[in-house]
Amino acid sequence: MSLMKKILSRAFLCSLFVAGPLPARTAGAQSAPFRVEPISALPTAGTIYRNETAGVLLVRDPQAAGDSFSNLYVADLQNTGVTPQDLELHGPLLYYHSGTGSFAVTKMERGLDARLAGRLYREGNFNGTPLLQLDGSPLIEVSAQAPTPVHPVENTLPAVESLASGVAAARIQKTVEQLAQIHTRYHRSDGGKEVPTLLAALYQEAARGRPDVRIETFEHESRHTPQKSLIARIVGQKNPNEIVVVGSHIDSINQRDPYARSPGADDDASGTAINLELFRLLMERGVQLDRTLEIHGYAAEEAGLVGSQEIARSYVEAGKAVISMLQNDMNLYSKDGKMKIWLVSSNTSDLLNEMLGRLISGYVGVPWEKRRLGLGSSDHSSWNRNGVHAAFPFEDPGASNPRIHTQNDTVEGASWEQAAAFARLSLAFAAHFAGIL
Fold first, then answer.
1. Do strands 131-133 and 72-76 pair parallel, antiparallel, or not at all (unpaired)?
2. Domain count, the chain
3. Torsions phi, psi for 355 (to 5 deg)
């Protein structure tokens, strides 16, 4: 089938601006496996995508086959010049929403086109990925009840204070520099495919042969990404079936050419290095936990949250009890040089954010504040979509690193003490929610 499609008429585009339930299809009349509803309709079953800014929901067609979601992507078009005609060069356009919260759903028949992704990054100035792989899985509402930590967050524990004092900014720096030396960690590149093996070796070395530790890689569907995700698991001693997750993403991208130099120091070698520092400290101090703690390094975040979505969905389908999740992504940059932890309020649990705020005050000693992430998202969204209380501590969403997704996302100007502050928060989160013994 030719990639060139019939150009959408202006009248058709106007008809797609959502004011109520509408059929979703392209000008070529290809049916979409979903219908569009105003967000006020709030259907409780079958919702596969919610866009608060646009005010619409996508609801799965009950008759839709699973393969109808193959290579289906939601593209955030805010602040970009990307048009429906541009999208149709890459495959059928199934839905387009103009105006506030502009987005589109497109079927990329040969998989995600890296040039289109780069253009979205470049023009939209996104903090996170502007793409979401839409797999047809229904959204699961997050519980109205707060996640329960093993140790109340109101209590400051001497054992955790001692652990937090051991965070080594120099070790975080060394890991970031090691990852940033790789030409690119783009998920389809040779470097990207080697990263999980490199990280697994670092975790194995740090584990020191502990019998309660498992290091493994998670292989994804090859049509989505050849890059594997990493899972480092510390099995809980009392409640091993209850899981607490700390995540980051291990890929990087250059918005002009995905195979070009992309050190990704801040995005997201920083979060990956912080998580390794968390693990190293727990191993060095011989810490055991009540619940199971899993540290995840997600594949292909920049390609639409591919790794985290597949893992989160597989955990839910297997009935695994995930208590809460924290994502570390972009922790090095401070425009004014002042340390502060921002808790992203979009696609996160406000209940968990408030609890993290208490942990920051108790163990980190830097100011904190909540703020929406204007454009883009990260892997916390995958867990939020699957009903898990998730949080996303971040550098200032209103003044984040302008060099990400370029060859200039290097260690120059990095605040290693700020990275150490995020590591202390991650350590406190793990100790309270997984339950230090």
1. antiparallel
2. 2
3. -70, -40
In a domain, 273, yes or no: yes
Could you tell me the CATH number of the domain that includes residue 360?
A: 3.40.630.10
- Does residue 220 sit in the same domain as residue 257? yes
Cβ-based burial of 137 (10 A; exposed 0-12, middle 13-18, buried ≥19): middle
pTM over 0.70: yes
Q: What are the pLDDT digits (tens) for 33-57?
A: 999 999 886 666 889 998 888 999 9
DSSP β-ladder status, 321-327 and 239-249? parallel
- Which stretch of 36-45, 50-59, 76-85, 273-282 has the lowest confidence by average pLDDT? 36-45
Q: For tokens 């390794």, what's the residue?
A: 276
Residue 143 lies in a domain: no
Owning domain of residue 52: 10-133
Q: What is the pLDDT of residue 3?
A: 23
According to DSSP, the residues that pair with 398 across neighbouring strands are none
- Which pLDDT tens digit goes with each residue over 285-341? 999 999 999 999 999 999 999 999 999 999 999 999 999 999 999 999 999 999 999
Residues 6+ apart with CB under 8 A from 229: 196, 217, 218, 220, 250, 296, 297, 298, 299, 307, 308, 311
171 and 262 together in one domain: yes
